[in-house]
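During the reporting period the student researcher (J.K.) took over the structure-prediction task from the postdoctoral fellow and processed the backlog of single-chain submissions. One of the processed entries is reproduced below for the supervisory committee.
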Amino acid sequence: MKKFSHSTADKVVQQLEKTTNPQKTPLKAKTSAKITAFVLTLVMLVVLSASVLGAYLMLGMNLYTTPKEQLQSDIYTSNAKAISSYTLGSILDGQASDAVSYCSYRNVTGVFIDVKGEDAFQWHYGITNKSGSDFVSNLILYIDENNNIYTYDEDGTYTPVVITVYLPYNLTESDTLYMENMILNVAYALRYWVYVIGLIAFTIGIYCFAFLMSSAGHRQGTAEIQPGWGTWVPADLLAVGYFLSCFLCAQFAVETGYQASAFVNLLALFLAGFAIIVMTIGLCMSIAVRLKLGSWWKNTILYYVLRIAWRILRKLGKMLSRFAHIMVKIPLVWKTAAAFVGLSVVEFFVIMITWWEMDIYTIFWIFGKIVLFPIVMYIALMLKKLQKAGKAIASGDLSYQVDTKYMLPDFKAHGENLNQIGEGMTLAVENRLKSERMKTELITNVSHDIKTPLTSIINYSDLIEKEPSDNPQITEYASVLHRQSERLKRLIEDLVEASKASTGNLEVLLAPCEVGVMMTQAIGEYEQRLEKSQLKLVTSQPEDPVRIMADGRRLWRVFDNLMNNICKYGQPGTRVYFSLETAANEVVIAFKNTSREPLNLSPDELLERFVRGDSARNSDGNGLGLSIAKSLTELQNGSMELTVDGDLFKVILRFPRIQ
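J.K. obtained the following structure tokens:
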């Protein structure tokens, strides 16, 4: 007996499950449902159109205001008039047999014709009295000597003819009277139902149309939207084809109606309308699929045209940008010459186009250009000299002088002004340097003069503090005096150092220095102070040694000032970040902490002297720490960047890296 594996058994079970519990295909994915909805939509549109047309005709026939008997009487009267005219014309033409044949194939009970005048005669068909007939119409027509029939006598000379037509209500022949009477009965019976039928057709048509739009793109066996056979056609091209096809269908209906019978005209109109409806539904379904796929805009000719135009514009923009960049780099004299020659060439071509109008003005134009060119170039040369002088002064060369010997008066005055600007700026710089030197000397001299008595105050206050005394207040006073004198000493030292650092008078000995070692030293120095201030230090540095050219003492002073600033103004319970990174040929040292007080000052203001972050000035700082750190960093060929972001205080030091 054959054994089945587990995989074979699983397949059999799955097949049985599919057989016993087949998955139902969604209605939107069934082709039969789509075809049914499509046909119903077409049928409902036809019914709706017929309802609208019928309602319009019924309003024109006054079915809602005129009794049915009156309308039926009008139909009988119009048919009686037609019968009278035809039979009288046949008899006057000597075709009495035609009149008899005409009446025999219609619902006519009898016709009696009585011609008056000199050639009076009578003619009758069928009954000649009202007995046996339901409708009687008496009509008077007029004929002239040529047997032409008129409905009224224009000048009183025509021969009157009395015609009596007898018509039955029980119609047996399928003539015009029968058809018109049947249409009246049907229209009268449906005069109110036509609106109900139209509303039902409209509702069903809308539902079927919505189903077609919803099912567009759905296929059996997949839940994803699938493109149709015409989705690859660009949307705008499809729209143009649709409108062109509708125009051709309408033109076909109009042209056929001019050259064919009423039946052919109605048939052509129906076919054209049917084709337009089919194309409209197909277009709507195609648009629905495109919208579901989400790529309708990219699948248009207009999109491709705009994209190509955008690429061309971008290339033109780049070309113009490059041209402008080249023009900027071209010297002023050559640029002026190129512009002059270019404009002259354009003007020359314009003159050549109108060569037949060339006269003395053309010769004058050529002569003017020849004279004007050296003048323009001379002005350009003077402008170049002024431009060169402006660049030199802007770059810091205050000793540069403009040669104004051969310049025109206005340009010469401008050159003299530039020369005076250079002289004035040189004088201002010298005065500024002199003032800075005087300030530095003053601060140094005053600080030196203050240090001598201050040293005595510090020493004697220390001795008084250490001297045994029965009065404890004396010891306390001496302690305060000693502490404040030490603070004053630090302030004087910082002031002297800040002054020297800002003027570059501070001695700096640059040598290879390992930043990681300095960083480790600073971490060990400030570890206890940071813990006392409830600050948690987070450090990071590369494993390989990182070296820069710096003065060890000055770099330590920078680290000391920044770490001291963090201990004073850091928010307790927060983290402090001290990191060392390398980027390309640069060393980046970062200090980050959260400020205890609101930082309502800009970075530039914080770097000024005697400016602190705590506006209440309730700490021991003097506002010189950041300024000294920045000056010392710059003296060591580095840079210091200060950033304030809310309460985040960040200082970035950058130094060139050496191997």
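The committee noted the following: Residues 1-7, 609-619 have pLDDT under 50 and may be disordered.
J.K. will present the remaining backlog at the next meeting.
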